[in-house]
Amino acid sequence: MIMAAGLGTRMRPLTDACPKPMVKVGGKPMLDHVLEKLVAAGIGRAVVNVHYLARMIETHLARRSSPQIIISDERDALLETGGGLARAMPLIAADLFFCLNSDSLWTDGATDVFRQLSAAWDDAVMDALLLLVPLARARNHDGPGDFELGANGQLQRRTAQTASHVFTGIQLVSKRLLRDLPPQDSFSTNILWQRALGEGRLFGTVHDGDWVEVGRPEHIRVAEEILALE
């Protein structure tokens, strides 16, 4: 699943008339960068959620022959990340699926991120496996970090002023994470992660390639420099 329903307010004025996933980096929409990574990894089907300026995204995706695109329509309400996942669940046949943010771009390391996550997955103990980068290598990220990574890969929330690792927006998820959902339609994935943390079922693995967040217009130049090195 590719999360593409956000308003992109930090990317204004570029998103005044363009949905954030369609903002170009290196001459093509960020959404295309992500989709091409899926195709290169042999992933043939993707669910893409839409809300803001949804028709522009749908029209663009209709021109693609691969991967197969299924639209999860959120025009009626902005559902946040967790609500968007819940809305899309009937469209995702497999119990285990990748979930990616459309504004996170990366270069692969020794292997592609999908194979890395798959190799690290342990279904007996995990509900979600998050791809992380060390805070020092999180390009364009101006936050304090997200998680501490235990020796066995288990995650803990930041307890100090900064955390050692940043979530890249790329994760491997079991539908177990989506059980017992909040009563409201709109909610953050953080609610689901928090339960998994309490149960010791939220894990992480460290990406050894480059990763760049593209949240504001000034981030584009850095992203283009990184992708040019791939």
From TrEMBL:
Residues 1-122 form the Nucleotidyl transferase domain. Keywords: Nucleotidyltransferase, Transferase. InterPro entries: GlmU-like, NTP_transferase_dom, Nucleotide-diphossugar_trans. It comes from the Bacteria. Pfam families: NTP_transferase (PF00483). PANTHER family: N-ACETYLMURAMATE ALPHA-1-PHOSPHATE URIDYLYLTRANSFERASE, NUCLEOTIDYL TRANSFERASE. This is Nucleotidyltransferase family protein. It comes from Croceicoccus esteveae. The lineage of its organism: Bacteria, Pseudomonadati, Pseudomonadota, Alphaproteobacteria, Sphingomonadales.
